[in-house]
Amino acid sequence: VEITRLSMPRWVQNGTEDSVVLDCEYNYSDEDQRLVVKWFLNDDPQPIYQWIPELNQRYASEKVKGKLNMDYTVSPSSQHTRYRALNLMKPTTELSGRYSCHVVSLLSQDAEDQVMVVYAPPRSFDFNYTKMSSESVVNFTCEADGVFPMPKITLLQLDLPERQASLVSGVKTITSSGKGGAYYVQVSREIRDWELTEEPTVFECVLSIPGTDYENQRKILYFPGSISGTWRSRAQTTCLLLLILFLLS
C-alpha cells in the first residue's frame, strides 16, 4: 500500500465553513489483505477515525463525534476507498492541528501528515498610548484578546515624511490563555520624546496568525511634546490620513 496524496485546507476560520474534507488517497494491490485506514490528530495515540473495509467497520472518537459526517464518501470510489476521507462539519479551534493518515495491511503500511490550522481572529484588538504629565515618557500598548492560535504581534515605527519603517525593539510581552484555549496578548514599549525626531511619528501594531494569511493592523500618530493623556488608535485614523496626505503632497 502507498499513500499518493494527502489533501486538506491549510487553514480555515473558526466556525465559518459548513464543512471541510481531509482526504487520504492511496494505491493498493490484491496482496494488501485486511486493509485498515486510521486518522490521528496531533500526539494522541488513539485514532480519531478508523475504517476496516473488509469488516465494514468504522469508528469515530469522542473528539470528532457530532462533527464528523459519517455518510460522506469519496467519488469515484471502490470497496476499499469509499470511507477513507474525513468530512468535518463546521470545524472549530479544537480541531486545529497536525493530522496524520495511516494505511496498513498485512503486507505493508504507509503514513503521511499535514497541518490544518483552525484559527479565531481576535475578539478585540486595540492600540493606544499613555503619556504622564510630569515626564516625556510615552507608553505604547497593543493588546489582542480571544485569538487562536497564539498570534505574532510586532510594533513598527514610521518616521514622516521619509516613510522609513523600522521594528521597535525591547518590547515587553504578556500572554495568557483562557477558557477554550483562546489567547490574550499584550505588547508594550516605553519611548522617550528625545528618542524621536521633531516630526510626527506613526506607530503601527501588526497582528498576524502563524500558519494562515490573517493579518490586521492598528496605527497611532504621535506628536513629540504632546500633552499628557491616553489616546487610542481608532481616534487617530482621520487625523493620520490627513497628515500623511499633506506630507506626501
TrEMBL record:
The organism's place on the tree of life at top rank: Eukaryota
Return the InterPro entries for the record. Answer: Ig-like_dom_sf (IPR036179), Ig-like_fold (IPR013783)
The protein depicted here goes by the name: Ig-like domain-containing protein
Organism this protein belongs to? Parasteatoda tepidariorum
